[in-house]
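User: Look at the shape:
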Amino acid sequence: MGFKHPLKLAVLPLLAGSSLLLTGCPFVNQGLTIHSVYIENQSLSVGSRTQIRIQASTMPGRTIRYTVRAERGRILTGDPVIDQNQQTVRTEKDTLTYHAPFTSRYPDAQGNQVQGDTIVIQAEDGFGSAQQSERINLGGDTMVYAKEASGASELWAATVGDGGYGVTNHRPIKDRNGQSVRGGSPTLSPDGRQVAFVLYPGTGSSAIYTLDSAGFVRNITGESGMNVDPTWAPDSRQIAFASDRRGNFDIYRVSTDREGNTPTSITTTAVDERYPAWNPSLHPDRRSTLAMSVRSSEQQPVSQKSDAWNVYLVNIENGSFFKKLTQLTAGGHFAWEPKWQSDGVRLAYTRFGPILNQTSGSVPAQRIYVTDTSRNDEGFVLNINQYGQNVTESSPIWNPNGIEIAYLNTVSGTTGIVHRQRVNPQSSTSEFPQIWQDFNTPIPGFQINTTENKPKFPYNGLSMDWR
């Protein structure tokens, strides 16, 4: 009979019964494995969705919990959502639904356009963890617009093919309950996660809401007065907007990370400011610039009301007016709805007044203009071949490719027809406009209250946006 070492007899039972010591053993933690992540459709059009199934295993008696995060899209599992801002989902379910963002690309911190989306999956079982990342290929752009519906307006989205050609579908934008969203002035965040829009409850006030691709809606501004004209910051974390909560319209900014944030005023003048447009460029000399329409014909100081509306450039950080882009002085003339090209230099806007570069006695008309903000002129009329007063143009938006503008063409006050027109980036000329045949739906055009010389509600701003 062999001799048994007393130390082994004492230690082995202790090891066998000690879960504390076993936790640190490498061979135990190797039980957790992510075998595969199956994405039903790994190449998606913007605004669509797909199913994701995770195959993972661990040792018997353990429960796998997943933490799933999409950089831009939204992950849903069917579980109750407590925090609408939470982009990370924690669940024990292995089947998820991925909602693609509204844009196929987004600007990174350096301003470079990044394509697609990334999903990061982390699995844990209480003893160890495993992680896997998956790319989602995204294609197309999104145009959002307000569509007339029973005397109000509904928000719709159209998926536009890469490069701006071919619309694959039109769809109403719906909330988490499957209800169509009513409102106006929709605008897309640069990262494609959200749409900001204005809701008019019929109480003499309005509020700005945001909605993500999965239908979660938030009230960002509250309903103190009229809150209108939302425009996104380049980092997609703030909006600027116009509000008359203190009497006349001033421009404010507010964080969009949750409901209940307090807006901060950018301007505090005695005149009305409307239609702010946050410069989309991340260039240090441009990122703090707002273009806006001001009811004043004077540049310094902006303190006396006038019946002319002009477009100014304003420093967001201190509210200073540092450049006047248009030079309208006559009562009832206006320059409104500024919209930046993606480089933050060129600006399209709606102008009512004598057509520039024509005879001094030309009849006033409402047209889309394009100006280079680095120069000291009002720019040029986009559609030089259009003269009739019964035709008005409004709601300019740039194709994401930066060389084409879409806008509404309205005849004698009817609803707008979408036109598109290529702009020569090397000169002050443009090609002949084309009707965008993919859009055969009535879209409300720009309306003005001629008695009070201000926009009508609720169709009081950009009816379209495109990213």
About this structure: Residues 6-16 form the longest helix (11 residues).
